[in-house]
Write a structure and sequence with these properties.
Layout (H helix, E strand, L loop, with lengths): L1 E5 L13 H10 L3 E6 L12 E4 L5 H14 L6 E4 L2 H7 L3 H8 L2 E5 L11 H16 L3 E4 L2 H10 L6 E3 L20 E7 L2 H8 L7 E7 L4 H7 L6 E4 L5 H9 L3 E4 L6 H4 L6 H8 L4 E4 L4 H7 L3 E4 L5 H10 L1 H11 L5 H12 L1
Helix pairs in contact: 2-3, 3-5
Length: 353
């Protein structure tokens, strides 16, 4: 079978674009042909999984023109079309029914974000929501990243096609489980560094642990290093890492930290869409999470770590995990399998093919 994937972003690495990376790898492993329309970078080892049509557009108008012109004029045929990003969904919506018929394909909306919840501009909210709704009505399958996000999507859109839930996760990949933390333990926050996190760091992270930030910030990593130079237990790294390099980097830490701002609904209900959460767990690292829906419940019910409501609780959370470190690691070992990507995607794959 042939699968056509659309993610028209123009930057980043292929391996950083979960779950598309895992989906293409899964499908390729079963002998299927994958086409990827995207501007992201694909390395030589990954090219064996796909054929890339390299083109990325930032402007919505240019995205609209290019995607529809290309798909309507192309002779490519496919069994399934995957659309991941709301911006692509909006751009394709008006011609999606025609494109499906022309390519002989079924359309899968693999909904990665719920941006329509946070549009402040009324015109953008109405028009963007309408365009996304059209795409959803023309979809054959709708995939959400968590039960709560599916519930939210259904509260915003009319979804008539079959729906599925697949966590934005990894398979369990711990090569060697560590049942004892480092001294002092290293707590890793991977991802974007927002103002709410900076305020928490600035208020003080007193404790016998190292707090490590790895990722990007609009404030500039070098500027942040200077701003927080007086905090000797805080480290900043700005890197773009491949799938394997990031896995190796995470494995050198003891505890994963997940913190989202509550001001945006898309972040407040990140839940199982938080790939960093599953990256930590997939390597056997206990977690400290903000007490947000799904994150709190999943963490506590499976004994994956500790949920907190403010940065002032980090010290106690780290102490609790360090004291019971081997118990948390054993719980991850026993309970993580139900969240693994391959198991969840395989169920979806078998029902649509």
């Amino acid at each position: 079978m042939v699968f056509f994937h659309i993610l028209s972003k123009q930057y980043g690495f292929f391996s950083s674009c979960l779950p598309m990376y895992n989906i293409i790898k899964f499908l390729s492993g079963r002998g299927h042909k994958n086409y990827l329309l995207s501007g992201i970078e694909v390395d030589e080892n990954e090219r064996k999984w796909l054929s890339q049509i390299k083109r990325g557009e930032r402007s919505f108008f240019k995205k609209f023109l290019f995607l529809n012109r290309f798909l309507l004029s192309s002779s490519l045929k496919a069994d399934f079309i995957f659309v991941y990003d709301p911006a692509d969904a909006m751009a394709l919506s008006l011609f999606s029914r025609i494109i499906k018929k022309k390519m002989g394909a079924k359309l899968i909306y693999y909904n990665l974000e719920l941006f329509v919840l946070d549009y402040e501009n009324l015109f953008k909210k109405l028009v963007g929501g309408l365009l996304e709704q059209i795409l959803i009505l023309n979809s054959d399958f709708f995939v959400a990243l968590s039960p709560k996000r599916l519930e939210l999507a259904k509260s915003v859109f009319k979804i008539r096609c079959p729906t599925f839930i697949i966590p934005n996760s990894y398979d369990f990949e711990a090569e060697k489980l560590n049942y004892f933390p480092s001294e002092p333990p290293r707590v890793l926050l991977a991802g974007g560094l927002e103002e709410s996190v900076l305020a928490g760091i600035e208020s003080g992270l007193d404790g016998n642990f190292i707090f490590v930030f790895h990722g990007l910030s609009k404030y500039g990593i070098e500027n942040l290093k200077k701003r927080f130079a007086q905090l000797k237990n805080v480290e900043f790294y700005e890197r773009f890492l491949s799938y394997d390099d990031f896995k190796s980097f995470v494995s050198k830490h003891d505890i994963g930290f997940v913190w989202y701002d509550k001001s945006k609904l898309n972040d407040r209900f990140a839940g199982w869409s938080a790939s960093k959460y599953f990256r930590y767990l997939s390597i056997g690292k206990p977690v400290i999470v903000r007490d947000l829906p799904e994150l709190k419940e999943t963490t506590e019910e499976n004994n994956f770590g500790v949920a907190i409501s403010s940065f002032s609780e980090i010290k106690n959370a780290v102490s609790k995990i360090v004291k019971n470190y081997s118990d948390y690691v054993k719980s991850i070992e026993q309970n993580y399998s139900k969240f693994e990507f391959t198991q969840n995607f395989k169920t979806f794959y078998e029902q649509i093919t």
